[in-house]
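Narrative summary of target 7.
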Amino acid sequence: MKVFLYDTTLRDGNQDRRISLSLADKLQIARLLDHFGFDYIEGGWPNPSNPTDEEFFQKIKEVKLKHAKIAAFGSTRRPGVIPEKDPLLQALVKSGAPVKTIFGKSWDLHVTDVIRTTLEENLDMIESSVAYLKENSEEVIYDAEHFFDGYKANPEYAMETLRAAENGHADFIVLCDTNGGTMPWELEEIVKEVKKRISTPIGIHVHDDSGLGVCNSIYAVKNGATMVQGVVNGFGERCGNANLTTIAADLHFKMGAKFFAAKKIARLRQLSGNVDQIVNLPSDPHAPYVGDAAFAHKGGAHIDGVMKVSRSFEHIDPHAVGNDRVFVTSDQAGGSLVVEKLKAIKPGIDKKDPVVGKLLTLIKERENAGWHFDSAEASFKMLVYRHLGMVQEPFKVLGYRVIEDKTTQGVSVSQATVKLQIGDKISHQVSEGDGPVNALDAALRKALLPFFPNMAKVKLDDYKVRVLGSKVASDATVRVWTTFGDEKGYWNVVGVSSNIIEASWMAFVDGLTYKILVDNKVIEGAYKHLDVKPVAPVVKEEPAPAKQKKLTKRQVKRAAGL
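Modeled conformation, tokenized:
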């Protein structure tokens, strides 16, 4: 059985009270999700009141996705309004997304007391909305909101809502445990019943209010669901959504399920960490499979057992998801994975080489101080290349200064001065910016540009600051994480200091040095894929004749005004 993974991090995950994704965040996460191999990426809810999502659907058309289909999310038409006149359905069509996902009411309580219409009108809202979008989309997915609560309250009506979506020719009907309160044994019996009475492929969408999001999703697949909707790392409203990171691993390692992203499962930890970094939240050390503590062993008996037979205390090989075992008492965290990365940089290096041991110690010291190399690959490479003596610095920093002034008109002015040595030349430049960090970035580029013309193509795509540890006063240690990009790709760097300007400076210097070394082919294979292509010119063609579809009884009645 093949399973389709449908990610809703950009919409449902964004409803987490700690998260507010920018357009740049959404585009960057979409690239990561596609690169990992998710089948569907739900971009958001396009409508005039949500300009970020509207712009996302236009910008994502410029990104060359390798596999994923983009889905736009919305609801059925409003009571008493035909689909052709409903503004939310029109916004879905206007988005141009190949897949449209809409939710409708399955619980009679919601029909009569929330949207306040008749049970029959709700059925027509579902069927007519799905049918209309089916005529204007490659694929339509119907999310049966509050289905399990609705089924427990009125099973026959809940099933009628699914039949209405089926009559509208939905490609998938997804059963939603929107309140997150259904128990696994209840869900299993209801899914079995749905499979008996609905021929359309079904999916599952579970919230985690009872801590059962992953469990219920797996039970649904076991009983015939072929689509799983969820969120990377389980972000979401209230207690969050089903954690698609854990679900993907469970499907692969525990159920042997077939899904496209299975071949990238060894990058699962990297995906999880990268998404955490973009949403600017600390990673959960106890997250199954991908957390720092997922394969950490502290007790002496456990460590002894793992060293003798790893599977005696580990349910899978941690390397299978890109993680590593940690022996807390022996202080040997992450060694084997780092050695593998070193071999990729310097083939033939012996892990017994003393320089490797010194480098492992340095990396551990940096990570303990707050450097996070899993999501800052460029910083990791710079550290290794420098420590192994494989690079010559393209420039030397002689000094920098940032000045903040406030004019008599109350306007703040940031000015940065940077002094560099490039060969036997001195470059001394001054720039102003919207803030001290912006001014510093501009001055550094300005100083480098006469010697390295490609600096003109580099953009700072993302910049995030996180306070580290329990010390949260103004003198706390901070980690600055940045993403630089140009027409060739993008790369991530990190800086750590108790001084936010210094941390930013570290990241900027590493980020631009990295670019110079890559362009000079000192560092090979350094860019991440960006896959952006110019928008193709519009070629007008004669529309193909529309296929005649057989109308359902309800559609015939509606057309006749009955």
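The chain has three domains: 4-279, 348-385+457-534, 395-451.
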